[in-house]
Design a protein that fits this description.
- The complex is a heterotrimer of chains A (about 230), B (about 250) and C (about 280).
- By secondary structure, chain A is of the alpha/beta class.
- Chain A has a five-stranded antiparallel β-sheet, covered by helices on one side. A five-stranded parallel β-sheet of chain A has the order 6-7-8-3-9, with helices on both faces.
- The longest helix of chain A is centred in the C-terminal third of the chain and has 16 residues.
- Chain B has a six-stranded mixed β-sheet with strand order 6-7-8-3-9-10, with helices on both faces. A four-stranded antiparallel β-sheet of chain B has the order 2-1-4-5, with helices on one face.
- The chains are: A alpha/beta (about 230), B alpha/beta (about 250), C alpha/beta (about 280).
Chain lengths: ~230, ~250, ~280
């Protein structure tokens, strides 16, 4: 099975200047290897570094040491040392991230938010909007809501827009942070199906799933993280 | 490959170090935000990059097609031609940039006329197209901006600046001073136009939300120095420098 | 005339003005500052034109002076008399006999030749002054050839009035480089400036500027491709000589508002009438 993501030796300590210089070590010699078609669930108590690891893999957090190799266009690229424009390029086509909450942009209708990823990849506007409609329908967001900006939606509706936005594209690697947290069971099951479809297409998934049902349904491997503790 | 670069810029205003060894690079189609509080030097930096201020030392370089070259070597005429065609500058107060007693069409057409366009019909059609692009009713082509709202004036300035198809646009607090609901509309407009036209942008703002919405990369300035730089989401979500942490934590939640 | 130098001005002053004229001829359309002298008539009455004429005129020259096209108005008569007394030069009202023609607000209908010099009286030499009151700023504009504002003004005219509304002093581009005020001649006369065989000199006494258009220089009135420059003319015929293609003065002939048209160029009209007899 192809390795799509290979991180090793990761270390991250937060230096909290505003708390008198307190140091919070969250990752120490952490590593993770993700293969095509498989899902790894990050597990551990609060403060163990699950979210930190996920964000580090996306380049959203900087690590103090280690390497994060990502298979992009056939070659392994270390995003720890890659220039910003390359990281942005990797995020555009190879590495997707599903956050826990939708960051709603004012005025942009749900349909456009969801179609954006396809348009970025050069799809025709007609086709992109059709696909966006279908994806939103599947997640229970009907016509009326599709044409509205999600700022006024409920938390669950917003998250479904967020999920549609992510799953509409094919991502070789997909990082998911509590994707089903605000969903009811019916929608949760739809998302599980979507994740299975992604795996079937060869995607590597790494996720934080608080819901054990979801974890059992989708994860092939569990990576257990433990908190390191304060250096007060 | 950078197409705009600043190398070791230093500028003092009396004893105040407005720019203290500032270097940066910008690539084509990239959006860079410079954030900082008043007195950080961000506006001085923007004006220096745009050729409106000469630094005490250091260089600003731009690639017009034949590689990076210092803009100081262009001569005043060359620099002004650059500023009028390949570059654009959107000011915080549109009233400073527009002629309030010239029609909307005349304001947009001015850059076209300065670039040598001599066909009244074409100029008018182009101006009308741009009014529509910035969501102003094209029927207002012959109206005087004197009677436009703040948001409309800013949109008119955007149209008048982008009409010549610049590759690089400098923006100084483009939504500062506007009502919040109006800001959202203008930001969305800017975001759309920048993406559609593939513009490179250097944007100065004190509003972190604006930076997050628009910029790929972020520079944080304090007392004339760059204290942190990186991808926008990384600098805002994982700030390292003390000042950046302060800035990020100071934003009032909605 | 006792106590005065030839043509009133002292030789050093004439040299200074000739130097300015040479510079002006070397840079067509560009305004050259000069140290305008006190003349025995107030500003606004042609002091600039008189100083230029005084500096170039020689004892063998024949001078014609017109004001709004006529040789017989008060100003034209006074200025002609002034040079007759201070320079003793021959004067004439016939365009084709003159070697130097000083004019206010018109160009003669008869085409000028390479042997002639025409000196225009100019009240405001700066074509941009209504758009940009600061002289320092207009200097920059000229230096950088930044004339967008003027085109914007023309654009606004077309937008507001359907056509360019400048009836006189319509700005021109000289030699493809400098924006110039042709002095308050009617737009009708603008085409005559282009590739004129005679040397054209412009003097502004109050504003202290001299500029020039050398013979056979390109002078193009500002316009748009699809709204080309249109030399306006009253739709009429001269009541005195029947000319249908000259610039006409409109003259009220009764208190009831009856009017007639007559050629503004009095010499041209007279020649026509003589030819008809």
């Amino acid at each position: 099975m192809t390795v799509l993501l290979d991180a090793s030796g990761l270390a991250k300590t937060f230096l909290l200047h505003l708390q008198g210089g307190a140091r919070l070590e969250v990752l120490r010699r952490t590593g993770i290897t993700a293969q095509a078609g498989a899902c790894i669930a990050l597990s551990g108590p609060s403060g163990a570094g699950k979210s930190t690891l996920l964000r580090a893999l996306y380049g959203n957090y900087l690590v103090d040491a280690g390497s994060i190799l990502i298979r992009h266009d056939g070659a392994m690229v270390d995003i720890v040392t890659a220039p910003p424009e390359q990281i942005l390029e990797i995020r555009r086509r190879t590495l997707g991230y599903v956050s826990q909450f939708l960051r709603a942009m004012p005025r942009v209708p749900a349909l456009d938010i969801v179609a954006a990823g396809l348009l970025d990849r050069g799809a025709e506007p007609e086709a992109a909007h059709e696909a966006a409609r279908a994806m939103l329908e599947r997640l229970g967001i009907g016509r009326r809501l599709q044409n509205l900006p999600p700022a006024t939606f409920s938390g669950g509706e917003q998250q479904r827009v967020n999920l549609a936005r992510a799953f509409i594209c094919d991502w070789p690697i997909l990082l998911l942070d509590e994707p089903t947290a605000s969903l009811d069971n019916a929608n949760r099951d739809i998302v599980i199906a979507m994740m299975r479809e992604a795996k079937a297409k060869g995607a590597a998934l790494i996720g934080i799933f608080h819901d054990e049902f979801v974890r059992d349904a989708i994860a092939d491997e569990i990576l257990q993280l433990e908190p390191i503790g304060h250096d007060a | 490959m950078n197409f705009l670069e600043a190398r070791d810029l230093c500028t003092n205003f009396g004893r105040i170090r407005a720019l203290d060894h500032v270097s940066l690079g910008l690539r084509r189609h990239e959006i860079l935000a410079i954030v900082g509080e008043s007195g950080s030097g961000k506006t001085t930096l923007l004006n220096t990059l745009a050729g409106r201020l000469t630094p005490d030392s250091g260089d600003v370089l731009f690639d017009r097609g034949a590689g990076l070259a210092p803009i100081s070597e262009l001569g005043e005429l060359g620099l002004r031609q650059l500023q009028r065609a390949q570059w654009g500058f959107i000011q915080q107060d549109p009233r400073q940039a527009l002629r309030l007693d010239i029609t909307a069409g005349g304001n947009i057409g001015e850059r076209l006329m300065a670039a040598g366009n001599r066909n009244y019909g074409d100029i008018r059609a182009e101006a009308a197209r741009w009014l529509a692009a910035v969501e102003i009713d094209p029927a207002r082509l012959d109206d005087l901006p004197k009677f436009f709202s703040g948001g409309m004036l800013q949109r008119l300035q955007i149209a008048a600046t982008l009409v010549t198809g610049p590759e690089l646009v400098f923006m100084d607090e483009p939504t500062g001073g506007l009502d919040v609901s109006v800001q959202a509309r203008i930001l969305d407009l800017i975001r759309g136009l920048v993406r559609k036209l593939g513009l490179a942008v250097v944007l100065v703002t004190h509003d972190i939300g604006v930076a997050r919405l628009l910029a790929d990369r972020l520079i944080v300035m304090r007392h004339g120095r760059i204290v942190e730089t990186g991808l926008t989401d990384q600098v805002l979500d994982d700030p390292h420098h003390e000042y950046t942490q302060l800035l990020v934590s100071s934003v009032l939640p909605a | 005339m006792k106590g005065y130098n030839f043509a009133y001005l002292d030789e050093q002053t004439k040299r200074m003005i000739r130097r300015a004229v040479l510079k002006a001829v070397a840079i067509p359309g560009h305004q050259i500052p000069f140290a305008s002298r006190e003349m025995p008539l107030p500003y606004g009455w042609g002091t600039g034109g008189i100083q230029v004429t005084a500096s170039i005129i020689g004892p063998d020259d024949v001078l014609k002076v017109i004001d709004q096209g006529a040789d017989d108005t008060t100003n034209a008569v006074s200025i002609r008399g002034f040079f007759a007394r201070t320079a003793g030069v021959a004067t004439t009202t016939h365009t084709s006999e003159a070697s130097v023609i000083q004019t206010r607000h018109r160009i003669p209908e008869v085409p000028l030749t390479e042997d002639q010099v025409i000196v225009y009286q100019v009240p405001m030499p700066e074509p941009l002054y209504r758009l940009e009151p600061s002289r320092a700023a207009t200097k920059r504009r000229h230096a950088l050839a930044e004339y967008g504002e003027m085109h914007v003004k023309l654009y606004e005219d077309i937008t507001r009035f359907g056509r360019v509304a400048v009836a006189y002093d319509h700005p021109v581009m000289v030699n493809g480089r400098y924006l110039m005020s042709p002095s308050p001649i009617p737009a009708f006369d603008n085409p005559k400036l282009d590739h004129m065989p005679a040397l054209q000199l412009f003097g502004a006494g109050r504003e202290k500027r001299i500029y020039a258009v050398p013979p056979y220089t390109a002078v193009r009135s500002l316009d748009f491709e699809d709204h080309p420059f249109h030399p306006g003319r009253a739709d009429g015929v001269c009541a005195l000589c029947g000319a249908a293609d000259t610039y006409l003065d409109e003259i009220l002939v009764s208190d009831q508002g009856d009017k007639m048209f007559a050629c503004s160029d009095s010499d041209f009209c007279e020649q026509n009438r003589e030819a008809l007899r």
